[in-house]
Specification:
Chain lengths: 108, 113
């Protein structure tokens, strides 16, 4: 199975700053089928990015995804107050489908 | 608007059974694979199972294999998860998921005596 390792575990930044979250896979993800989700406390996750770099419908363009093979990243260009949440990567190109352990983005 | 509405969660004793349902609307249900994902409160997301658009291809995570059964009724736009031989470690919020379109709000399953 593919293990996804997200780093850092917690990221402390201020509104207006740039955030870069990493997701590293133990093996190559088929077809770069890698997604990013945002989860706020008490809510279901929300899709941000799919197929490594395609922005989901309605997602602001400050969110971008990049990477291929085993190394992927999510960048938030200028943090807004509503962006502070937990972020998960997910690979859906190989079975079993696996999530990363999450990165908590907190206000500094 | 995509809507996924789960039901059927609750408190069950170890060894018991539950059947979760997910009513889908706002998209062409018959075109999409569907998934169940669970989350222990305060912990990470764990994929449980998936089913192809026509119901002919099904996969499970190892911890639930042989105990859980995923199915769908495309005429009713509904996804199901039959959970048997439940264990304490199955306690979690269960989400019905279309990976590319959206998630339901979840239904809580608690396995306890």
């Amino acid at each position: 199975e593919i293990v996804l390792t997200q780093s850092p575990g917690t990221l402390s930044l201020s509104p207006g700053e740039r955030a870069t979250l990493s997701c590293r896979a133990s093996q190559s993800v088929n077809n770069n089928y890698l997604a990013w989700y945002q989860q706020k406390f008490g809510q279901a996750p929300r899709l941000l990015i799919y197929d490594a770099s395609s922005r989901a419908t309605g997602i602001p363009d400050r969110f971008s995804g990049s990477g291929s093979g085993t190394d992927f990243s999510l960048t938030i260009s200028r943090l807004e107050p509503e962006d502070f949440a937990v972020y998960y990567c997910l690979q859906y190109g190989n079975l079993p489908i696996m999530f990363g352990q999450g990165t908590r983005l907190e206000i500094k | 608007e995509v809507q996924l509405v789960e039901s059927g969660g609750g408190l069950v004793q170890p060894g018991g059974s539950l059947r979760l349902s997910c009513a889908a609307s706002g998209f062409t249900f018959t075109n999409y694979w569907m998934h169940w994902v669970r989350q222990v409160p305060g912990k990470g997301l764990v994929w449980v199972s998936r089913i192809s658009s026509d119901g002919n291809t099904i996969n499970y995570a190892d911890p639930v294999k042989g105990r859980f059964t995923i199915s769908r009724d495309n005429a009713k736009n509904t996804l199901y998860l039959q959970m048997n031989s439940l264990r304490a470690e199955d306690t979690a919020m269960y989400y019905c998921v279309n990976l590319l379109l959206g998630w339901g709000q979840g239904t809580l399953v608690t396995v306890s005596s």
